[in-house]
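Two entries, shown back to back:
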Amino acid sequence: LIALLRGLDISPERSWLGVILVFLAFSVLVYRRYKGGKWRYIKVITPQKDGAQLARDYFHETKDF
């Protein structure tokens, strides 16, 4: 990182400004995704059609143990 700053001749103040701008840009993007509302309809686990049970991993116990 230091070699990059020296190679591009960027001052520490400008590099900190860059970090802050990237943080703000990501914050705006996350906020816009949240306000878009698509996350409300994401299906994490789809129901199985053939009635097969999920594989047991022995870390998450179920009621039938």
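entry 2 starts here
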Amino acid sequence: MTRQPIFTEKAPAAIGPYSQAVVAEGRFVFCSGQIPLTPAGELKMASIEEQTTQCMENIKALLRSQGVALGQIVKTTIYLSSMDHFATVNEVYGKYFQTGAPARSTVAVAGLPKGVDVEIEAIAVA
């Protein structure tokens, strides 16, 4: 199996021992969970809308660095600090997938890195 770590300055650097994303077999792009951290390292915490938007923009930047579009995502997983955020996150997330939304799981968790309320990971096929 071939596996190539991805790094782009247009998305936040990894905050631990992991890659921003990995391309496997030359066509599968696995994006690590993205929190609302800007490429400059600023945490966007004003609202759940702002947090979700930053997560999606990070994913978009990672995919673009490989010539892949959001429409090529086949699966996402959304982690929420509370299911009370579900409807709002759904609304923002839906704006990124006007047609043909990918398969998705959404779960509430006990905690997320840096105390954020949302983390999103994605798998795309180039």
